[in-house]
Amino acid sequence: MVPDAEFTSYYGRPIIKSPTWKVPDVPLYLYLGGAAGTSACVGALADLTGRGPLRRWGRFAALTGALVSVGALVHDLGRPRRFLHMLRVLKPTSPLSVGSWILAPFGTLSGLAAASELTGIAPAVGRAAGIGAAALGPAMSTYTAVLLADTAVPAWHEAHRELPFVFAGSALAAGGGIGLAATGDVRPARRIAVAGAVLELVATAVLERRVGFARTAYTSGRPGRLLTLARAATLVGAAAATAGGLVPGRRGRLLSRIAAGLLNGGAAATRFGIFEAGIVTARDPAYTVQPQRARVEARRDGVPVGMSDPMHPNDPHDGLQPHALEPERAEDVEAAEDDGNGGPARNPGGDATGADPRQLDKG
Amino acid sequence: MGNSWYGPLADPSGNAGYAADHPPRVGFFTDTSVCIGCKACEVACKEWNALPADGPHHDQPDLLDLTATSYDNTGALGASTYRHVAFIEQTRPRAAAATVDLGMPLPAGDATEVRWLMASDVCKHCTHAACLDVCPTGALIRTEHGTVLVQDDICNGCGYCIPACPYGVIDQRKGSREEGGGGAFKCTMCHDRLGAGLQPACATACPTESIQFGPLDELRDRAARRVETLHRSGVPEARLYGHDPDDGVGGDGAFFLLLDEPEVYGLPPDPVVTTRDLPSMWRHAAAAALTVAATVAAAFLGGRR
User: Fold this and answer.
1) Going by C-beta distance under 8 Å and a sequence separation of 6 or more, which residues neighbour residue A35?
2) Quick one: B56 and B153 in the same domain?
3) Given CA atoms B221, B225, B230, B236 in this order, what sign does their dihedral have?
4) I need a labelling partner for A226 at 20 to 30 A (CA). Which of A308, B65, B122, B257 fits?
5) Does A281 contact chain B (CB < 8 Å)?
6) What is the DSSP string of B185-237?
7) Residue B4 falls within a domain, yes or no?
């Protein structure tokens, strides 16, 4: 929930439209795409290093993830029969277009590798296909962060530097976790899972610290609870994965499988939490109006952009303080301006404001 | 091809690949200071474009009913509402000096006055249109007139344009396939009328010339003069919105004269096309992908433990 604050809106109605993307289709795809991407990498490297069971798990997980992903994405379309229109053009400005061109060959190659695994036919083709899928795997894991960030949704767009690393960590934890369920030598999967869990936890913490005004959406309400759950599952999962490597025999195996479940649950909860945080900030006009208003005022006063936050005047943990410079945020803003042909410097509202209080009943 | 994604861009149609002899960029100048809230634009738009009833909005389901907040029962732009007249009732400190003293008795002790703001909102046809940039199928295009158009026979209803729009204009239509259900819809600037040399239906129907249509350059000049006139005649709060080619979307094809801050009308105060940050996003995603690859490789190559 957003704290009460002075800001103006049109009867409290949203400014931007919230996504029509369905739950669970899209957040499920965010999780599965990441898990499938790293699983393909695990499968290919297990193949090259002679770890049969790990290779099998990696290949099957990659194909399952890709198939369910495609199903979820087609189901999410308003006009599912036109799903092939996704491959009509290739547009670098559209993360969904780029993603379709990653997912289509990834799914095909994962399918070939898994078919070879299942039938034992043409292992050389299976190996080549598996390596091809692995080459696309890391992109599968992280492009979905751009998919969310390249929107006007404040919680997603403002996190566009951190989201790819959250998704990378979450995908590594999930894919490594799946590998932990295999028999035989799973030490590489264990290292991947633990490294991924650490990256996921750190990147999420950095995101919440740097996202500025949208922080409330990540730390409160349903998204906040989902992300807390994700953190707990990932933390315990990483501990269980580590312990599973130290405890020999059957009990070690059991710990590893528990870790596999926890890490994948955590990865999925992370994606659902981030997805829902975005929806919260799309529905509440405060998240759109307040940071933009602060930018306009700052430009008018000649103060560096993004420095004042009228919404959290009493929250010492929030990155933005009214009329106070917060150094880390200032760096972010400079970085943002470097990213896109220099920051805009203008004053679209004009400075001809009357003394009117701009009061409106919030509907 | 400089500034294809962000920044001032004089000729978006030329940038999109139209030959140099394409028609001039056209747009709307909506002067809200003369809007009387009659909603003729909404009706003309619905009729000309044969738009169905809106039905409940996907995240504002009450919009089918009376809003019970003002004379505005439309509420917002949507998949079947390409013009929306906002209606705002404000209590504010009484203007310091009335321009003409009519000798009317004023209520003693009341230092406030009430004013009505009315404004007809529409798709902004941005110079840098996020909806167009993110569309994965090529359904959204830049037209020869410089406007942004959805090709309904291409759109597969992926919905990416909807959260990409910084103004909350475009939306997915509910309903049967015959009514276009599942696809994304927004103002076409009456593309079919433009080709025939006609004005869009809303501008044609507007009785006060609050909605003015024409070549964008001409409209910008006219708007600047109008603001000057209003400032001279005691309306210092008049300001333009979306007219500036240096703003976050490269300037709007449909811009406004407002009498208060944009958010009062439900408009974002400082919209920025999301594509501005896309190069940075791809760079960060590439770095994250390399992190994934390196982590997996290191895990397999790492020493036996």
Assistant:
1) A61, A65, A171, A174, A175, A178, A264, A267
2) yes
3) positive
4) A308
5) no
6) E-----HHHHHTTPPPHHHHH-TTS-EEEEEHHHHHHHHHHHHHHHHHTT-TT
7) no
pLDDT in tens, B38-74: 999 999 999 999 999 876 665 667 666 677 788 998 8
Task: Give B79's contacts (C-beta < 8 A, 6+ positions apart).
Answer: B54, B170, B171, B172, B173, B174, B184, B185, B186
B128, B214: one domain: yes
- Say yes or no: B217 and B261 in one domain: yes
Terminal-residue alpha carbon distance, chain B: 55
Is B195 a member of any domain?
A: yes
Inter-chain contact A78–B157, Cβ cutoff 8 Å? Answer: yes
Report the residue from A167, A191, A289 with minimal CB separation from B269: A289
Cα–Cα distance between A163 and B284 in angstroms, integer? 9
Instruction: Based on the fold, state whether residues B60 and B149 are members of the same structural domain.
Output: yes
pLDDT digits (tens, 9 = 90+) for A286-319: 999 999 999 999 998 886 544 444 443 333 333 3
- Best mutation target among B252, B275, B281, B304 (most A Cβ atoms within 10 Å) is B281
- Asked if residue B293 is part of any domain, the answer here is yes
Percentage, residues of chain B above pLDDT 90:
79
Between helix A52-76 and helix A25-48 the angle, nearest 10°, is 160
Query: Which residue positions in chain A have pLDDT lower than 70?
Result: 1-5, 303-363
Q: How remote is the C-alpha of A202 from its chain's centroid?
A: 14
Structural domain span for residue B280: 275-305
Question: Considering its fold, how many domains does chain B have in total?
Answer: 2
A221 vs B: CB within 8 A: no
CB of B245 within 8 Å of a chain A CB? The answer is no
ipTM of the prediction: 0.92
CA distances (Å), origin B297, targets A144, B264, B301: 22, 54, 6
What whole-number distance in Å separates Cα of residue B78 and Cα of residue B165? Answer: 12
Same domain, residue pair B166 and B240: yes
B176 within a domain of the structure (yes/no): yes
Phi-psi domain of A295 (left: phi exceeds 0; alpha: psi -120 through 50; beta: other): alpha
Backbone torsions φ then ψ of A244, nearest 5 degrees: -60, -30
Contact A358 B165 (CB under 8 A): no
CB contact under 8 A, A188 and B302: yes
